[in-house]
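Subject: Interface between my chains keeps coming out wrong

I've been trying for a while to get a sensible model of this assembly. When I model each chain on its own everything looks fine, but I need the whole thing in one frame so I can look at the contacts. Pasting all components below, labels as-is. Any help appreciated, I'm running out of ideas.
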Amino acid sequence: MTIPERLKDSGPHPLAHQSTAGGVSAASTQPSLVLRDLGISFGSKEVLRDVNLQVQPGQFVALVGPSGAGKSTLLRLINGSHRPTTGTVSVLGVNPGTCGRRSLQKLRTRVGFVFQQFGLVGRLSAMENVLMGTLGSLRMPRYGISTYPRQLREKAVANLERVGLVDQRFQRCDTLSGGQQQRVAIARTLMQDAEIVLADEPVASLDPSASMSVLNTLKRLSAEDGFTVVCSLHQVDLALQVSDRVVAVRNGSLILDTRTSDTSEEALRAIYEKAKGARP
Amino acid sequence: MSGTMKETAADTRPDGVGTKRRRSNSGQLPPGATQAVPKRPRVSAATLGIPLAYLAVTVFGVWWIDIRPAAVAAGFGDIARLLERMVPPTTGPFPDLLALTLETLWIAVAGTGLATIASVFLAAAASRHFTGPRVVRWLAQGIIIVTRAVPSLIFAILFVRIFGLGPLAGGLAIAFHSIGMVGKMMADVFEEQAPSPREAIASVGANRLQNFVSTTLTRALPAVTSLVIYRLDINVRASAILGLVGAGGIGVALQTAIGSLNYRRAAGIILVIVCLLLILELVAYLVQRAVAEHADEHTQSQLHVAGAAQADPGWNRSRVLRTAAAVSALMLFLFSLSQLSLNPARLGQAWDNAAALLSGFVPPVFTEQILLGIFESVIMAFTATFFGVLLGLIIAVLSTRHLIRFEPLSLTLRAVVVFMRGIPDIVYALIFVAALGLGPFAGFLALSISCTALASKFFTDSLQNVDPAPLRALEATGAGRVQVFVSGVWPQFVPSFIGNSLFTSDLALRESAVLGIVGAGGIGFLLDESVATLNYQQTAGILIGLIVVVVALESVARWARRKVI
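Reply #2:
Try treating it as a single job with all components included. I did that and got this:
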């Protein structure tokens, strides 16, 4: 594990973040994520503007907001898939917007990403998909479970056990349920020993029961390993149940940043209602 | 019907949506109420113009090739007399023939294997998802286009000049031409994949090669396997005739037999070729079915059983079969490479020959003769496709159960088509040249037969796959068999009819470019002669002309398909 031991010992991190919107007190540890005056435009369309955010290690941040608000773009900026037009991103002390291909690959080995569509190769087994999470730390291409070192295979089994899928490890992924597939994707990020996990609407394709199970798994693992989570969600009730902190985006701007305990379902729903009302 | 059209025409809005007054339940229209009525679809200029243009080319082709009923009737008499001289067929010394048959197989396997390896890299670089330098992508696309445009027999002529007579030239000729098709189709497979696994693996920090192998190639594997087996089937067919230009295989024996007027042996060799192709077609069909079943989602949930340790995959029947198939294919490929008479001395000489050939290409020469030859090839291909499609359609309709339900007729027609398809076009051309003399008429007849066989195969498959639900609905209304065919079958069949007709014409064009090698008209004769007389500047001119025409006509066909379907 690359997470410092002190973080593991301290369990889930208390809300000790600094924020421009929330006005919460400063933390003593180095932040996992710092966004300063961040903005991005695609052609003439401005998708995000003046986003400022600081996230401390171990926090579970729920990112909410209506469709098209810029949540996915924000996560992709953090992951280095997009380069910002203005401002800077600092992930684990590295700016993905300015680093070269090799440095970005190196950074990505420390940043997990959970996708709405899981991003699994359906015709391969759950175990092989989980093992793919280690590719960034390996040199050569791999095909087949046996081409990965034994140590990694044992770690993959252990991680599948943590997400409750060890019995399905040799099962073909496209025969698993949606919730099971997303848990395989989470096990894949565990293989990275990620210090921060970005999740882009990870439960949007799942039924309510599977959604709760997937988010609880992510929450439990984050607490056990001490990694930071930034998770975009549409379901405000789920956001309130699993997160320590809620950040809301609307029309490309960050409009809310607060402790979860300081907000309510009605307040968050109002963000969606206002967005509906704003549409012509 | 016409009354309704007249009534609504007066209410048609300028924006193209017709309106008519809405009637109440009693049939009366409430005052001021209107109802949208779809405008009668207009037949586009392309829908009418393209078939008419094709018909005009065919009529011109009939005049150019001088296809007269009397000449055709006389020609059949000559062919019948030649066929009489082929009976009973003999094979000559059987061990020699067996060795040549196996050489044909090794050429096809080695060529297909080499093409597959090269195509993986080319397709990855040519695909839309390639993120490397743009010039690499253009280069890969260029290689795919050029190799697809030049038929394998033409590559064989060039490689025989470089590597000398024998299977090495044949194997490389098969490989080069196959790259065009396999590379193009592989790139299409790569491009059709959903991007999410690729994005997911990029997000774990994997490099491009790791990502390509783990997500793109892994997902494409069933489709690529199926594609390679399909291409192997085509390549065995192609390698059976490479011997006609000295590039190894059973075609050498056929050329010798016909050259020495030993028609009984020629017939025996043709029968061996047909049997070989039919057996391989059956094998290819069975393997493809197995691959398709494996590739289907949800067919098999447990890929491995647990091994000795918890983290080790164990062996089940499916894994044993998959591994055995992969190892066998690899061994077969390596063995086939060893059969290509590859040695360092030969390669050293080949380097000098290739340098001489390529430097001789500059500057290319374009003559009137070249233009005329290419023009003749195009006309032969188009005219033969017209008749082939027409006859193919009749055979397909009679072979399926939509109009005629007489099983013996259907079975006989299918058997005839399978046999017709078993004989390569150039073999037909050889027979027709021997019977009717040199010229495009022999080439036209050869191409017509192969187009008929090909088109009827495509059309039969399409007619069998039409959705039966609308047909049952029409039958339930009391419609007759012809009515069901016209209203239920035909509209469903039209898109595939057009697509397959254009595809047949595309294949016919490549084939017609090589028929001249045996004297059956078109540019092939001039090409063969230019290489034989070391007139490489003319060879380059022909190759460039051919590539330009094939690529241009392919683009026209693509445009026509888009417009008409």
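Reply #3:
Confirming on my end. Confidence is low (pLDDT under 50) at residues 1-28 of chain A.
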